[in-house]
Amino acid sequence: MSNILVFAEQREGQLKSYALEAISEGRRLADTAGGELSVCLIGSGIAGLSAAVSSYGADKVLTADDGALSVYAPGAYADLLKEALSMSSAAVVLLSSSAMGRELGALLAAKAQASLLSDVIKTAWEGDHLVVNRPVYAGKAFLEIAAKKLPVIVTLRPNVFAAVERSGAGAVESLTVAGSEGGVTVIDTSMKASTRPELTEASIIVSGGRAMGGADQYKIIEELADTLGAAVGASRASVDAGWRPHADQVGQTGKTVSPNLYIACGISGAIQHLAGMNSSKCIVAINTDPEAPIFKVANYGIVADLFEVVPAFNAAVKELLT
Fold first, then answer.
1. Are residues 257 and 217 in the same domain?
2. Does residue 12 share a domain with residue 83?
3. What integer pLDDT is reported at residue 2 of this predicted model?
4. Is 180 domain-assigned?
5. Tens digits of per-residue pLDDT, 114-173?
6. 103 with 222, same domain?
7. Which strands form 141-147's sheet, in the order they lie side by side?
8. What's the pLDDT tens digit per position in 177-215?
9. Residues of the domain holding 288
């Protein structure tokens, strides 16, 4: 068994960026082991996505395209993914470590009696075993784990793995839509409209902490984010104070992010927050306290008042872009 199966997450007929990352990592693992890469697509009106996933290396595309699947239903999706696992004879199933991916991965592991490894940041083959790395203790240490029982379900941290386009046209096969809901019926989902990128997918994030002083003060954070085309994040203290919605929270009890650039404004760097962003490629910290823990993980640190630095930073970026 050396085949790989990837669940490609999509919303409203658009593949998520981290789905392409998972497909590319699946292609790399399949090539290393001499196996086949299958990609599973589930939803409604998704026929056009088969060509897109094939262009990232899929040998086979397993699709479940039905109006009943337009809204994510955990039980139905897990049943279909289990069928895809059987059809692909996969040793490894890759999902993104998104809210959907984490739930679906756990459900599939239970249904398929499979191993589960979550929030993985590195994968490799060692003989017949898949070996992965994942952070523990709020990112202060890393575990190297060999999966000795197959199949193994793996969720990958978004924005860690590279998405690489390839040429190809995978064969398309259909899954059986049985209509199972696993005892749960999802009637509707709602999402707040925003012109900014979703937090876990953003390549740049500007976050504010307790030092912001209030909800109104986040205006300067939002202005810089809009100039950079970035998402807006927040520390737990800001969310607990009611200054920002929980959807903006970065940290152990919020969202885990790995952007190319993370700008922390007035965030001290508590362990809870660092656990959610310390895998960012470049971290810029702005804080008046030179002893703030955030400076220990920052690539660049500015010891100054954020209310002076952020507007000046925003003006400089605007000038560069004009």
1. yes
2. yes
3. 86
4. no
5. 999 999 999 999 988 899 999 888 777 899 999 888 899 999 999 899 999 887 777 888
6. no
7. 122-126, 129-136, 141-147
8. 765 555 667 777 776 667 788 898 899 999 999 999 999
9. 204-321
Largest CA distance in the chain: 60
Which tokens is 281 given?
A: 């490629």
The owner of tokens 């000046």 is 312
Is 47 within a domain? yes
Taking CA 280 as the corner, what is the angle to CA 160 and CA 227, rounded to the nearest 5 degrees? 110
Residues 6 or more apart from 21 whose CB is under 8 A from it?
96, 156, 158, 159, 160, 161, 162, 163
Assess whether 122 and 165 both reside in one domain.
yes
Closest to 163 (Cα-Cα) out of 6, 44, 276: 6
Q: Is the Cβ–Cβ distance between 118 and 158 less than 8 Å?
A: no
Q: What is the CATH number of the domain that holds 286?
A: 3.40.50.1220
Same domain for 134 and 87: yes
pTM: 0.86
**Distance (Å, rounded) from C-alpha 224 to C-alpha 295?**
21
Residue 149 and residue 43 share a domain: yes
The alpha carbon torsion through 253, 255, 260, 265 (nearest 10 deg) reads -60
In terms of C-beta density within 10 A (0-12 exposed, 13-18 middle, 19 or more buried), how is residue 40 classed? Answer: buried
pLDDT at 179: 56
> Do 211 and 303 have their domain in common?
yes
Across the beta sheet with 231-234, the strand order is 231-234, 204-208, 261-265, 282-287, 300-303
Q: Are residue 7 and residue 71 in the same domain, yes or no?
A: yes
